[in-house]
Specification:
Order of helices and strands: EHEEHHEHEHH
Strand order of the largest sheet: 1-2-3
Helix content: 25-40%
Shape: globular
Radius of gyration: 17 Å
Strand content: 15-25%
Largest sheet: 3 strands, antiparallel
Oligomer: single chain
Length: 128
């Protein structure tokens, strides 16, 4: 009961995307029922189709290899969802000019809401 997936919408959007129609990808497909007592204002209470699909890349090796844009990857060394130490080893295998930065004592959500990320992003953006 903590998450509600709108399966008919997910299936419909998946079908539309298979014919390259992505205009509706901003529609919500998953809602999270997080009790108010546990909320602090940083949580995401719903996922759009676009966001949900982005969490599960189909072929990260191919996607990274074909990327023409500059890439900055910032991960917290205390990330609970990823093995942060693997990023500097794996990503350059497919995107040689990627810049990977690990930040000490930062968790998975700390990368999004912590002040530690601000200086890193500011310096990177000023390069261009």
């Amino acid at each position: 009961g903590w998450a509600f997936a709108r399966m008919p919408r997910i299936v419909g959007l998946s079908m539309l995307n298979s014919i390259k129609f992505s205009l509706l990808n901003g529609l919500k497909v998953i809602d999270f029922n997080m009790p108010r007592d546990y909320r602090d204002g940083t949580e995401t209470l719903s996922y759009s189709y676009r966001l949900n699909e982005g969490y599960a890349p189909r072929n990260y090796k191919k996607d990274l290899s074909k990327m023409n844009q500059k890439l900055l990857v910032v991960v917290g060394e205390s990330d609970e969802s990823f093995i942060a130490s693997e990023f500097p080893k794996v990503i350059p295998m497919y995107k040689k000019d990627a810049e990977i930065i690990l930040i000490k004592n930062v968790t998975h959500m700390g990368i999004v809401v912590g002040i530690e990320i601000r200086d890193v992003l500011s310096k990177w953006i000023k390069k261009f």
